[in-house]
Amino acid sequence: MAVNPTLRYRAVGGFSLVELMLSLSLGLALSGVMLQGLMAEGQNGARFSRLLRERAAQRRTLELLKQDLAQATAVSETPELEQYGCSLAGRIPVLHLHTGAGPITYSVGAAPSAIWRGRVLMRCGPAFGLDGRPTAGSKSINRVVIDGLPVKVAKKPECESLLPRGGIDLIDLAGASASGFSACLHAETGLLVVNLEQEFSRVSRQKSQFSSQRIFVQIPI
């Protein structure tokens, strides 16, 4: 029985050129899909790591604020009318504390230099001593506490909405509830609610991401 020469060649020689090109195309397509998946996973990991860093910075800022509040004898209901130990350079005074070591003012506004991102939260108050406490009688120092505050918050938090349960009239100190750092005070009970929000860029062609935290502090009245 005669055998077709073409079939004999294919049986001995392996795949044809068309089959090789088709296999190569499928392999490249699969590699492209896998590469895109790896890139997306890397971007998600970078975004998550950035979010963790930002939230850690927020926690440090709120811990510093808690320490200052623990030393406070009173919280001003009109921080915009107080006397400050530093020049605010047009920034909004949101929280003004009266302490035994001297007044402490937290203000929000433009960064003092280009090394900071967006709007900043600054603390004007007595310098810290070796014991980690503000030194009474020392000259007030103005320092950036945290940067990256949004020009406009993702969703304006009304003071009443910051509480787990409504029904309490809170004073929006300096009317700053629309900024990245806001404080709401209930004058009768001394309850102070502080909200801190940051904005940072996500991967290209995507909207910015917001991260916020808040604390509840009881101030002596």
Q: What is the succession of H and E elements? A: HHEEEEEEEEE
Number of helices: 2
Mean pLDDT: 81
Total individual domains: 1
Tally the beta strands.
9
The helix/strand class is: alpha+beta
- The proportion of strand residues reads 25-35%
What oligomerization state is this entry in? single chain
Distance between the termini: 110 Å
Q: Assign a percent range to the helix content.
A: 25-40%
Biggest sheet: strands side by side, in what order?
1-2-3-4-5
**Which blocks of ≥5 consecutive residues have pLDDT under 50?**
none
Largest sheet: 5 strands, antiparallel
The geometry reads as elongated
Rg is: 29 Å
Description:
- The protein is an alpha+beta fold and 221 residues long.
- It contains two helices and nine strands.
- The protein has helices at 5-13, 17-71; strands spanning 72-75, 92-99, 104-110, 119-126, 140-149, 171-172, 181-186, 191-200, 209-218.
- The strands form two sheets. Strands 1-2-3-4-5 form a five-stranded antiparallel β-sheet, with helices on one face. Strands 6-7-8-9 form a four-stranded antiparallel β-sheet, covered by helices on one side.
- The longest helix is centred in the first third of the chain and has 55 residues, at 17-71.
